[in-house]
Design a protein that fits this description.
Layout lengths: L5 E6 L6 H14 L4 E5 L6 H7 L3 E2 L3 E5 L2 E5 L2 H7 L3 E4 L15 H10 L3 E7 L7 H8 L9 H5 L3 E5 L3 H9 L6 H9 L4 H29 L11 E6 L5 H14 L4 E8 L9 H13 L3 E6 L3 H11 L4 E5 L14 H8 L5 E5 L20 H24 L4 H19 L1 H19 L11 H50 L4 H11 L4 E6 L8 E7 L12 E4 L4 E6 L8 H47 L1 H15 L7 H32 L8 E3 L1 H4 L12 E4 L7 E3 L1 H18 L6 E8 L2 E7 L32 H11 L3 E6 L5 E8 L26
Parallel strand pairs: 1-7, 1-8, 2-3, 2-6, 6-7, 9-10, 9-12, 10-11, 12-13, 19-21
Antiparallel strand pairs: 4-5, 14-15, 14-17, 16-17, 18-20, 21-22, 22-24, 23-24
Helix pairs in contact: 1-2, 10-11, 12-13, 14-15, 14-16, 15-16, 15-17, 16-17, 17-19, 18-19, 19-21, 20-21, 23-24
Length: 854
Amino acid sequence: MGRGKLRIYLGAAPGVGKTYAMLAEAHRRIERGTDCVVAFVEHHGRSRTEVLLHGLEQVPRRELVHRGAVFTELDLDAVLARAPRVALVDELAHTNVPGARNAKRWQDVEELLAAGIDVVSTVNIQHLESLGDVVESITGVRQQETVPDEMVRRADQIELVDMSPQALRRRMAHGNIYQPDKVDAALSNYFRPGNLTALRELALLWVADRADEYLQQYRSEHRVSKIWGSRERIVVGLTGGPEGRTLIRRAARLAEKGAGGEVLAVYIARSDGLTSASPKELAVQRPLVEDLGGTFHHVLGDDIPAALLDFARGVNATQIVLGSSRRKAWQYVFGPGVGATVARESGPDLDVHIVTHEEVAKGRGLPVARGARLGRSRLLWGWLAGLGGPVLLTLLLNSVHLGLANDVLLYLALTVAAALLGGLYPALASAAVGSLLLNWFFTPPVNRITIADPKNMLALAIFVGVALSVASVVDVAARRTHQAARLRAESEILSFLAGDVLRGGISLETLLERVRETFAMESAVLLERESDVAPWTCAGRAGAGAPVERPEDADVDMPVGDHMALALTGRVLPAEDRRVLAAFAAQAAVVLDRRRLRAEADRARALAEGNRIRTALLAAVSHDLRTPLAGIKAAVSSLRADDVAWSEEDRAELLEGIEDGADRLDHLVGNLLDMSRLQTGTVTPLIREIDVDEVVPMALGGVPEASVQLDIPETLPMVAVDAGLLERAMANLVENAVKYSPAGRTVLVAGSALADRVEVRVVDRGPGVPDDAKERIFEPFQRYGDAPRGAGVGLGLAVARGFAEAMGGTLNAEDTPGGGLTMVLTLRAAGSPHGASAPTTLHSATAERQAARC
């Protein structure tokens, strides 16, 4: 059985109707006779969505117990055993409850697809991993649940469920998304018109880029060369001259006028001669293109107009922007120029813009390009001068008698002209024809092959020798010019390649795409194997076409070491191009090694972090559990004392103290173990809606009763936190504040509300902390000032900040007015769209975070 197909309904925000559209699709498939079941769908109390669940077979969910509560999750084994044709799995980015087979729901979906089951799922644009920073800059909140972009990109179908911000806000106001008591907070925070508009634009652009990938793949597979104007793509032809910056900005303005416009700047390095490209100008123009949202491309081509048009058609461009020629008027005798040629051959589907600039008609900074074959026009003129020139000169000299010496000089000048124009062979032809004509018409005896005077024979010999020498010099100069041009073109390409690799910002796939683009190939594949007898495997691929499994199957293969090769398909490259290809292949191997070293470094970093957490956990045991252990030991020692007769009330009180200490000990161990799992990514905090005034008093058990003053208003909004983590964080903060407070001065614990946040401040009147040490006190094993070793190992504040950040909050230190230190713990209010909003009987990934997604 083959792999199943994945269909995803993508939305810009919660409530646009992704789940509704998915269930409607399920009913349509069932009507067509498809075996379709509901593996996991949440209706979130929305009546219209709940109605669509009627008539659909639902696979029973799996119940999991976590921290004393029961949660329901997708039962992967039950769905695999049922083996339907299509399974509906809601909320692709969901985090599973600890105890499930996989940590993420998209991993469950991967198993279903691998089993040959088609899956229909939903996801919001803010849950795509690559857009985390962008979404955070828009909404102010970092999404904790994400799904890899590649998982969504590999979907067989992606359908955008779109809704205008105004319509979505109306749905929210009518109570169709959240409960009525949460509507006002949601409309004033997450569901603001600006937020929704920005998220909608993100979704539209992402889907447009995905559609463009499908289009490019289709055009490549079907070899479609005709331009399809599906979106405005503007190619800017750069020469390396100073006018390039003007052209780039003009193209960017043109792109802004069209929806989804894209700018592609291309510099074509001529391999057949010197060019007027300025490396300094190209170095300036490349970042300018990227800053304006475009891309820079470097292509090798002998015929600049043809290469430019091939590139434009290859990327399905709709417009080309070129600058007016910098050539002077007399230089047009050599041809119409690149701009005129491109405009003439562009065809009806490709518009060409000729942009004026300050460098028009000022000439080129370097000599005009010369070719290895000197060009067709020069060869033609060279042969005409070499063969026709002596005949015309003979006719002229027959009517004007100048003497043999002058005749020889004129024929020699004609031979030099033929050499300068056409190179070696036209000059040899001119020397041969000229010597014969001189001998026949002007050397006594005339009209005969023989030469009577030996001096005339010497003159003819010198003439032939000088002609051959001049022709040889011109030919050598032409070859040297070609070599210099070739080396310059190669150095330009390699300099850009080396710059990208050294900056570390280029991926293997991007590098292979540049190889394919530079040499105009169909595909480029980096193959490797472990040994000489092992099969080849693909390390990276770019382009379309049939996949290459062995280097021998490719049109061009370039070995890289003993067990790696770069394989290209499309055409056979000339030998002179293989030197540049070898450099590309070597750099591809470097990029691959760098990627693997980075992965190894990440794994090593994870191991080091795990070791640090384990070390911190051991230290935390010493730091946080000393008080309850001391209390239990004191109570037990008192009960075992033989010299004291305890009353029943005293005995009961001591036993109660032992029981309380054991309970607290158990509670602390559980919290510390949860923190260690949290830091290693194996557990998610259980986010619930709670009142701050219910948790804070429970955190004061380890300090004297009169040492803390509480000011927690009952009107504070509920917060979305893990009660256990909040209690432990507050206990550490209060204990630290009491420790450094002067005798007789109480610690103030005050709460206040600010927008969609709740702040809890722990204020002491101790010595305070300098500004440069306010961050260091949150590092593990840091004890400020002269605190004795018995005061702890310096882990309390680090644990408190770790718990705060795990719950989506922050913990910072500020100066107390009048002296002292204030710890500010900021928590998310439950009424905000990023806090908890669902019933507390569900896990945080299926309940408290439902307010931020469907």
